[in-house]
Amino acid sequence: MKHYSYSSHAGTCLSIADILYLLYFKVLNIDPADPKKVDRDKFILSKAHGSAALYATLAERGFFPKDHLDKFYIDGGVLPGHLAIDSVPGIEISAGSLGHGLSIGVGMAVANRRSQNPGRIYVLLGDGECNEGSVWEAVMLASTLQLANLTAIVDYNKLQSFGRTNEVINQKNMADRWRCFGWETYEVDGHNIDELDNIFQLKQAGPKVVIAHTIKGKGVSFMEDRLEWHYKSPNDEQYLQAIKELDEAQ
Amino acid sequence: MRNTVINCLMERARIDDRIFLVTPDVGFSVLEKFRCEFPDRFLNVGIAEQNAIGVAAGLALSGYIPYVYSMVPFVTMRCFEQVRIDVAYMKTNVRLLGLGAGLTYGPQGASHHSIEDIAIMRALPNMTVCCPGDPIEARELIGQSYDYEGPIYFRLGKNNEPVIHPEGTEVRIGKAVRVAEGADLALITTSNMLEQGMRWVGDWANEGLQATLLSMPTIKPFDHGAVLELIENGIPIITLEEHNIIGGLGSVVAEVIAESGKGVKFKRIAIPDAYVHDVGSQKFLRGIFHIDSFDVLSFIRRGI
């Protein structure tokens, strides 16, 4: 998708791919045949520049035909670079500006609790996104309200758009920050499906956050932990090399 | 006006489980009764306006109809991008209740005034912009908000606004309210200038000028037809608003006149693109900005 559309953000898609796979194939209570079912779990991709990874996951899970993936970020396309709620089934919110998703997730969690709706809310944020003050407004409210139906995941890949995350804004104590604000906080290798799954399954009395240590560009040697893959799209040679490496890793 | 609105919401909340009130820590002496009767449909999110809008959008996406209550700057400008993406772009059924239209909070200073809100809110696709001029308009517009599709911004006063319209006056979203009829000129007001407009039209009658008075409780969608009818009849038009002269009622009417292909004498009375640097009440500040008086005879004679 990134190759044919000459679009950016390939690195971030690879850092969250394992998390999305786990959520959509094991964790979330969802039904591709009934994408709006009232008691579904809702997943919010707050770092919406990772949209391509979500589209690929939703298509694989059967929410829409896979040929839509050929209509990403191009003239007359179906799938925009950042998320639009009315683009394809399975997209829960429109997004693209950082620091919005967790607030919306809190609103959904409040609504479900009051309506006695068992649906759970999952919000995936970027580590750079945690620079946004509005994230912490939502963090503080969620713990005050003890929203036990809300889980946040921080894609802690240590790179943001113009530098290393902890050099731009020092968040080396990322887990402590969430813990201090009253969240049930877990740290995990964000590419270890079993570890992630164990943490998702743990019962919670209040909001839960999973600090997922990830690698931007995971699985493609020349992309891993490289800032430029926030922007570049692979050329023909790089595309073939990346696909080869990802296939071999399977 | 704010009590009228909250009373309407409480009445509706008793029969409509979707009504939800969200506030970023504003509402002392006004919202307690709602909180007391509907504790699980009231949420004080703390002093965090961006979060208030996002939370409201999440509630709306879950089937509730959230009303977010604060002063105008804090439900529009402080959280504008949340309003843009989470409310307008997604077309969620969020209602923004902004208190303190124009210079209502006079001596509190410019941070608490709202002179840009109409311009910025009407520039948002999908956003309906309601600016009631008296408690009757407020009640009727709020009454239409329960089953209205898409977001609405309400520019409200504060308290003790006089009732202008008689009971039974028809007020519809998107329609002008015809208050007085006259063929010599027309005065169009919005929001809290209706009261002064009524007074002016009475004064002008004493000077022998019969004026039409239109109240525009909705700026978007705008009642083009009501203005086109005035233009058609060659009636000079004056607009009156407690808002910046850029982007408010006067600008909307100017757009209608400009595209009508016909000309009429036209004057915008509004705040002259300036922030308040004087200290004083709403009434005092209207005097500073010269929006409390108008030489109507000079306008009729010379068009200025």
Description of the molecule:
The complex is a heterodimer of chains A (250) and B (304). Chain A is α/β, with parallel strands linked by helices. Chain A has a single domain (2-249), classed as Rossmann fold (3-Layer(aba) Sandwich), CATH 3.40.50. Helices cover 37% and strands 13% of the residues of chain A. Chain A has nine helices and seven strands. Chain A has helices spanning 2-5, 10-27, 51-61, 101-114, 133-144, 165-168, 174-180, 193-201, 236-249, and strands at 42-45, 121-126, 150-156, 159-160, 163-164, 184-189, 208-213. Chain A has a five-stranded parallel beta sheet with strand order 1-2-3-7-6, with helices on both faces. A two-stranded antiparallel ribbon of chain A has the order 4-5. In chain A, helix 5 links the parallel strand 2 and strand 3. The longest helix of chain A is centred in the first third of the chain and has 18 residues, at 10-27. The two termini of chain A are 19 Å apart. The model of chain A has no long low-confidence stretch (mean pLDDT 96). With 304 residues, chain B is α/β, with parallel strands linked by helices. Chain B has two domains: 2-155, Thiamin diphosphate (ThDP)-binding fold, Pyr/PP domains (Rossmann fold, 3-Layer(aba) Sandwich), CATH 3.40.50; 177-302, 3-Layer(aba) Sandwich (Rossmann fold). Chain B is built from twelve helices and twelve strands. Chain B has helices at residues 2-13, 32-37, 49-61, 72-75, 80-89, 117-122, 135-143, 194-206, 224-232, 249-260, 282-288, 296-302; strands at 19-23, 42-44, 65-71, 95-99, 128-130, 152-155, 177-180, 185-189, 211-215, 218-220, 237-244, 266-271. A seven-stranded mixed beta sheet of chain B has the order 2-1-3-4-6-5-10, with helices on both faces. Chain B has a five-stranded mixed beta sheet with strand order 7-9-8-11-12, with helices on both faces. Chain B is globular, with a radius of gyration of 19 Å. The two termini of chain B are 34 Å apart. Chains A and B meet through helix 4 and helix 5 of A and helix 3 and helix 5 of B.
